[in-house]
Write a structure and sequence with these properties.
12 helices, transport, Sugar ABC transporter permease, cell membrane, mainly alpha, globular, transmembrane, two-stranded antiparallel ribbon
Length: 300
């Protein structure tokens, strides 16, 4: 009888704990359903309609999806996105690793340097955009410096279709490499010093240690940062909005900014939703490829 009473008491206590847990989870769950799940499903439905947000919806089936593949601006935006991703992701990862190695030393004031490198990540992108737009202006500090060096016609960084996307990529790399460096620093500090000591005893130099110990042991962290950087680069919006607004012409137009233009400038919500779902599929496919491919080079 005592055992049965104890079991009943435990069961009642467990149910009470479960109810308490659900009460704490409920606000977040409701918010997730209302602000994430419902808009995602609703936008998918809207992608099959022609709708300006005010008048009645007109069903067009796959018309929006067919039309976007015939849209020259969509194609340019997609290619700009690919260029942006292929440039920013490898460089931000590489520079992040190098900076992390430099920060992984015990010298006076190193914590201050770590904070400085991380500051761009926690600074408003609008503020960063304004500062960099001033720096890269036609007669800004950089071009003034280049003219003093004797370069009479320095690049029009944000006014030229040749250099505008490159300028945005430089700013994005500068902003993200500090964040990557902090993540890589955490990974570096998790590598046992015994491995390096054993390698040095066997005659390995610093380069050998880096490629034979550091990189393999850091591969899970590299994989994590690569996945996050790919997703972030394909969703880039704030940098474009703050610095170029897709210009000059369509030189820096990317898919997220194109979605914004179609939805909130042209009021073509159905078409914008179709573009958004194409972008979602692109991100999903690339992420799945990365997760399948990581089995060949990531060491856990």
């Amino acid at each position: 009888m005592k055992k049965k009473a104890a079991k009943t008491h435990t069961s009642a206590y467990s149910r009470s704990q479960m109810r308490t847990a659900w009460l704490f989870l409920l606000p977040n769950f409701v918010g997730f359903m209302v602000f994430i799940v419902y808009p995602v499903i609703k936008s998918f439905v809207i992608s099959f309609y022609d709708w300006d947000g005010l008048t009645a919806k007109r069903f067009v089936g796959l018309g929006n999806y067919i039309r976007l593949f015939q849209d020259g601006t969509f194609q340019i935006s997609f290619l700009n996105n690919i260029h942006y991703t292929l440039v920013t992701v490898p460089l931000s990862i590489l520079l992040g690793i190098l900076i992390a190695c430099l920060m992984n030393v015990k010298i006076r004031g190193i914590k201050l340097f770590r904070t400085i490198y991380f500051l761009p990540q926690v600074t408003s992108m609008i503020a960063i955009g304004i500062v960099w737009t001033t720096i890269l202006a036609n007669y800004g500090p950089i071009n003034q410096f280049l003219m003093k060096l004797g370069i009479q016609n320095p690049p029009m960084w944000l006014s030229s279709s040749t250099f505008a996307l490159i300028s945005v990529e430089i700013v994005s790399i500068w902003r993200s490499m500090g964040y990557n460096a902090i993540i890589f620093l955490a990974g570096l500090q998790g590598i046992s010093g015994d491995l390096y000591e054993a390698a040095r005893i066997d005659g390995a130099n610093r380069i050998n240690c880096f490629f034979k110990i550091t990189v393999p042991m850091l591969s899970p962290t590299i994989f994590l940062c690569t996945v996050m950087q790919f997703i972030s680069s394909l969703q880039v919006f704030d940098t474009i909005m703050a610095m170029t607004q897709g210009g000059p012409g369509r030189a820096t137009n990317v898919l997220t900014y194109y979605i914004y233009q179609r939805a909130f400038v042209d009021m073509r919500f159905g078409y914008a939703s179709a573009v958004a779902y194409v972008l979602f599929v692109i991100i999903l496919v690339i992420t799945l490829i990365q997760f399948v491919g990581q089995k060949k080079w990531v060491n856990y």
